[in-house]
Design goal:
This protein is α/β, with parallel strands linked by helices and 264 residues long. The protein has one domain: Rossmann fold (3-Layer(aba) Sandwich). Helices cover 29% and strands 30% of the residues. Strands 4, 5, 6, 7, 8, 11, 12 and 13 form an eight-stranded mixed β-sheet that branches. A hairpin with an 8-residue loop joins strand 9 and strand 10. The protein is globular and about 50 Å long.
């Protein structure tokens, strides 16, 4: 795979990471293996079953760890919402894999809080989630439409997902029209310098899983314009320090950031 990509992308000592500056999604996708590869789902399932069964404490991008890294901005936000809503917490976790974020934060949610945590994912993930992970708190759905038809979620969480959509700005436009009370972004990719959104190809190290896919880096000011109906409550750096400085074609051009918005 890498030899094919190397012919098109600029020379770089990197073999894995983010590469290129593509004009269209189709150009990048032509070189990618995609996000729906069966090997990613299977490895994620195995890792999260270990977490669920107490054999590992933490899963991130399908890799298990012995020490958990807690996303405290998300935890603080969830506790605030629960307090403000009489211990009711209704979450939509868009692109939430098989419940990775829920397994990270659940230790901090008091037992008296009535939680509905719905992961919206691709069909294969939803089918797998319903079979192996769904319970009274963790649920799975095929679309945000399905979630809003059943109930009004208090918060939509988007963790390392929006940059992997073909048309992220269309998605954001549609999301804010639904007016969830809170929108929470984590591990979202931005350019460090002003400029138009940049479309790259991300090549994942094979020790995580063998995959590649198109990946956006956003102009922050353009991104924030979607949220005129919202107040920016907080912005924060990612838990993993390496994500504060992301290289594209070997140059430190990007970073991950997080934002919390509240409907005004």
């Amino acid at each position: 795979m890498f030899k094919k990509i190397k012919k098109i992308l600029k020379p770089s000592k990197q073999r894995y990471g983010w590469f290129g500056h593509f004009n269209t999604w189709q150009e990048a996708q032509a070189l990618a293996t995609g996000y729906n590869a069966a090997n990613i789902l299977e490895k994620t399932k195995i890792s999260l079953l270990k977490v669920k069964n107490g054999e590992a404490v933490y899963e991130r991008d399908s890799v298990t760890f012995d020490k958990k890294e807690y996303p405290f901005p998300a935890i603080a936000t969830l506790l605030r919402i629960a307090i403000e809503n009489n211990n009711v917490l209704n979450v939509v976790d868009f692109g939430g894999s098989l419940g990775s974020t829920w397994f990270q934060v659940k230790d901090f949610i008091p037992e008296q809080v009535r939680v509905t945590w719905t992961v919206v994912e691709q069909k294969a993930y939803v089918d797998c989630g319903k079979q192996h992970f769904e319970d009274d708190q963790l649920r799975f759905a095929f679309s945000i439409d399905e979630c809003f038809e059943k109930t009004r979620p208090q918060i939509v969480i988007l963790s390392s997902v929006i940059q992997y959509l073909e048309k992220p700005h269309d998605f954001l436009h549609n999301l804010v029209t639904r007016e969830p009370s809170f929108i929470f972004f984590d591990r979202t990719a931005f350019l460090k310098s002003p400029g138009a959104d940049r479309l790259t190809l991300q090549i994942v190290p094979p020790d995580i899983y063998d995959a590649s896919y198109p990946s956006w880096f956003f102009n922050e000011q353009t991104f924030l314009k979607h949220f005129n109906k919202y107040k920016l409550i907080a912005e924060f750096a990612p838990v993993v320090a390496a994500e504060q400085n992301i290289t594209i074609d070997g140059k430190p051009l990007g970073c991950d950031k997080g934002f919390l918005f509240k409907l005004t």
